[in-house]
Amino acid sequence: MRERNPSRANNAAQRDRQIVGREDDPARAARLIHDWVAKQVAARVVGGAPGAVRVLETRNGDCNEHTVLYVALARAAGLPARAVAGLLYRGGRFYYHAWPEVYLGDWVAVDPTLDQFPADAAHVRFVIGGLARQVELVRLIGSLKLEVL
Fold it and tell me: N or C terminus: fewer CB in 10 A for the chain?
C-alpha cells in the first residue's frame, strides 16, 4: 500500500490489527478481512482512482474500491493478495468486475463487493493487477464473444 501520508497509512495498519486481532490462521484472517470489508464499505459508484486509505476513510466504493482495500488490509496482515479483474456473469449477461485474490496455498478468489468467500464460478478472470493492468480488459470487452454452456 503506497500512501503519501505515513500517519494515514499507519491508521490503515492499525485498522487491520483491529480486524484480524491475534488470528494466526491465514484462511480465518482472510475471511475476517473479507467480512469486515463486505460489511463496512457501502456499494456506491465513486469517481477517481481507488486508494485504500481513502476507501477506509469514506467507506464507499464500487468493486475497485472494495478490492484495493481488501488487498491492502490482507497484505498488512501478512497475507499475499492481489487485485484481479474480468467478467462477472449475472442475469444472463457478462459485466466488468474487479475482485481480490488471496494466497492460501493457492490463489483463492474472494469478493467482498458481493459478499462471497470464496467467490463463485461466475467470476471469469482476465487480468491480474491494478487499474493499469485492467485497462487491457477494456480493449478486449468489445471484441469478446462468449457463450454459456
Answer: C
Smallest Cα–Cα separation from 41: which of 25, 53, 30, 31? 53
- Model confidence, pTM: 0.85
CB 18 within 8 Å of CB 59: no
Q: Which contiguous run of DSSP H or E holds residue 35?
A: helix 26-40
> 121 by DSSP, 3-state: which?
coil
Other beta carbons within 10 angstroms of residue 138's beta carbon come to: 11
Region 69-81: what's the mean pLDDT? 95
Given pLDDT bands bounded at 50, 70 and 90, which one contains residue 142?
low
Per 3-state DSSP, the chain is made up of helix, strand and coil in percentages (nearest 5) of 40, 25, 35
Which amino acid would we find at residue 26?
A: P
